[in-house]
Write a structure and sequence with these properties.
5-stranded mixed β-sheet, 16 strands, alpha/beta, single chain, 32% helix
Length: 507
């Protein structure tokens, strides 16, 4: 639970435009006129749309060479010319050329080391260097989240277990009490989520206190041995290799399959160097505060295979964990999620196994991975490489209504975008994953990073998908990247510029 953000805010479901009932009593001539006019208008709109398709964009206004028009994707499952789908499709197509003209100058202004791509409902509008391999920073969390949802499922839950060598007798556990980590990145004592020890409060925490309460409810009054933290579900790599100075132990890590409070212990100003031992120390404090006597000193260790469960607790579903990770840009959650993907799918709780599955998922979504490099899950490494097309494809595959779209920070309101675009028309609408990496010493390679990728929902249920990854020696300076971000928001906000689905829909 580290690095940037705010609370998960879910958007209310968007109502489809419906039929409006007028007052009773119109004359027969009004009814007859409506019967004649409505089909004519619909047919005219269909004819105009079809003509545009056949003409191969002959009537489209000139746009910047950075814009590449692509044919739509797979056939729609719903018939194209149903009254339900017609307004949205016709509106999108009538507005695409105008929107491309607005987006093109912005994309053309990006430097040669950066990339950008924009689409509407999966149909390409424009791009710049979209296949250029760039340093993605925290936008790396988007494919990690999407893979977790695809392979583990949105209902997947982490489980943390308290176990003993044998069942308690007369309230006493004769040996040690084992805390067996299940990879839960949001395991938190009740004091931690709003402790201000992180930049943003933890959302959807798993209560460590509730697990202690369950141990007490099981009748335990005494632990003769010690509380032992068991993180053997994952390997012993507590931080990813290649992280620069000031990253490991600060921006992320140490983490393992057992981690509570981001390896913090109440009353200790420093993070614990061993997340398993730190969690054991914290749980000892929780038990003792409830009157349970603990005889030994907390330590790291493995529970025997024959251990007996005393209590257990589950996390919020993966959809909520993803929302916390994306909204807060939580680095620890991302790294542990990668290892859980590896453990659950291939029985290997390692960074390498998890990232291999993320890469394969990109391949399954027809992403060209030739130039893609995945070093960690959080995006903290300067050695990671993604393309804007890869990010855009993931966003198109998941969709705005998915846990990805709903979990992203909201402009001017939540997470890492809470203070961005506050006075812009996209405030409260645009959802995005930010990405930031600095490059000390300033103004030299490798370049710094400032990235933003996500959705802008529009009237009628459509959504604009966008990916912008800025690389450059000084790009992390606010005076340099904020004007580019503002120009992006200005361009995105021009859609739709013409007829909306409600204008074209039946009345």
């Amino acid at each position: 639970m580290n690095s940037g953000g705010g609370a998960d805010t879910r958007a209310e479901p968007r109502r489809r435009p419906g039929r409006k009932r007028g007052p009773r009593g119109p004359g027969p001539w009004i009814v007859l006129a409506a019967v004649a006019i409505v089909p004519a208008l619909v047919l005219a709109a269909i004819s105009s749309w079809a003509s545009d398709q056949v003409s191969d964009n002959a009537a489209a206004p000139p746009v910047d060479s950075a814009v590449e028009r692509r044919s739509p994707g797979p056939a729609l499952s719903t018939s194209l010319l149903t009254l339900r789908r017609m307004p949205t499709i016709i509106s999108r197509d009538l507005n695409s050329d105008t929107f491309a003209g607005e987006v093109s100058p912005f994309l053309g202004s990006l430097n040669e080391r950066s990339c950008g791509a924009v689409s509407v409902d999966g149909v390409a509008i424009g791009e710049r260097n979209a296949e250029l391999a760039v340093i993605p920073a925290s936008t790396q969390k988007i494919p990690v989240a999407a893979t977790a949802l695809e392979l583990l499922g949105s209902d997947f839950r982490y489980t943390t277990t308290a176990a003993a060598d044998s069942a308690p007798v007369d309230g006493a556990i004769e040996g040690d009490l084992y805390l067996i980590g299940g990879g839960d990145p949001l395991l938190s004592s009740d004091w931690y989520p709003t402790s201000n020890l992180e930049r943003n409060p933890v959302t959807s925490p798993t209560s460590f206190d509730a697990l202690a309460d369950q141990v007490v409810a099981a009748g335990v009054t005494t632990v003769r041995g010690a509380v032992v933290g068991d993180g053997s579900r994952y390997d012993d790599e507590y931080s990813a290799p290649g992280w620069g100075d000031g990253v490991a132990g600060l921006e992320a890590g140490p983490y393992d399959a057992l981690m509570a409070n981001d390896s913090r212990v109440l009353g200790d100003p420093l993070r614990g160097g061993d997340p398993n031992e730190a969690a054991a120390r914290e749980f000892t404090l929780l038990l003792e505060s409830r009157g349970v006597s603990v005889g030994g000193v907390a330590r790291n260790g493995n529970a025997p295979p024959t251990s007996v469960e005393v209590a257990s607790i589950q996390s919020a579903p993966m959809s909520d964990v993803v929302a916390e990770m994306l909204g807060n840009s939580d680095n620890n959650t991302a790294e542990m999620m990668v290892k859980e993907i590896g453990y659950t799918v291939s029985s290997s709780g390692t960074r390498e196994a998890g990232l291999a599955l993320v890469r394969q998922q990109l391949v399954d979504w027809d992403v060209d991975v030739t130039s893609i490099v995945l070093v960690d899950g959080s995006g903290l490494s300067l050695d990671n490489r993604l393309t804007c097309n890869s990010l855009l494809t993931v966003l198109q595959q998941t969709g705005f209504e998915s846990p990805i779209g709903q979990g992203l920070a909201v402009a001017g309101q939540t997470g890492t975008l809470s203070d961005v675009f506050t006075d812009h028309p996209v405030a409260g609408r645009l959802r995005g994953k930010t990405g930031t990496l600095n490059n000390p010493p300033f103004n030299v390679d490798p370049p710094a990073v400032k990235a933003l990728a996500g959705y802008l929902p529009v009237e009628g249920g459509s959504a604009v998908e966008y990916a912008l990854v800025l690389n450059g020696p000084t790009i992390s300076d606010q005076s340099e990247y904020r004007p580019v971000w503002n120009n992006l928001a200005d361009a995105l906000d021009t859609y739709p510029a013409g007829a909306s689905p409600s204008d074209l829909g039946p009345r």
